[in-house]
Records
---
Amino acid sequence: MNKTKFAEKCAFVKIFIIITIVFCFLGKGKYMLFCDEIYSYESVNIVTEDKRNPYDSFNEPLSNKDIEEYMGASDLNPHFWKLQKDLYRDHVPLYFYILRLISIMNSNSWSHWTGLALNYIFYIWLFSMLWSYFINLV
């Protein structure tokens, strides 16, 4: 292996490690959800209408249990047909299919790390693709 290829691989690994550290640091400090995250979890985990929406009760404080029950997957059926029907017009369903599968694996519990882990996988994939494109371009 020549020095140039070795230097490229070392740079890739260093940037990969920096991205991972920054991602984990920012994820650990994340303490609130934004509307798109709530929409994503609602879309993939609310397969029946009988779940109580804790955000409808403005005068009651929300407990962690309320949020976990609402955002977590209580049904272990993937319901891909429902995701396809409800989201196909305005979203690409692949992200939601994968988020639903991850939510089922963590059934009856919820963590912001569920979506962040999926985003991390997509970020690393994109970084790798861009890296290989620009290395081959030079």
Note: The helical segments are 3-28, 35-45, 64-71, 80-87, 93-105, 112-137.
---
Amino acid sequence: MPKNSPLREHPYWRAVLDATEDLIFIKDKNSIIVDANEAFFALHEGGAKSVIGQTTFDSYSEEEQERFIAKDEASFIAGHERSDVGMHSPKTGELLYYSVQKTRFEFEGNIYLLCVGRDITCLLYTSDAADEEDSVD
């Protein structure tokens, strides 16, 4: 666990975070990843070493970068934000859809965003398939 992680004082949370398939990551006010769970690391080539201390923005298209930066800024101002976002997997290039909840919090005088992303890709494809079946009748 990174030494500047807000989770370092509660190591049992590591087991909880890594037990879920949801993407869970913590960003500082500059959108630098300070900690994340194994599901988030698995999404990026190189795992934790390529993510911690980075923004990961360079893994995405310019349009996706601008959208992520704007959402982070809005989340820091409002204190929270929920949105559904489409993005290309930095590892495979596959188009994925996530429902993302961002919540601002403070730890040792620093402000962070706790970000939780749930993969909703299959829900959208299932919904699209159901719509197509309905339109065939």
Note: The mean pLDDT is 84.
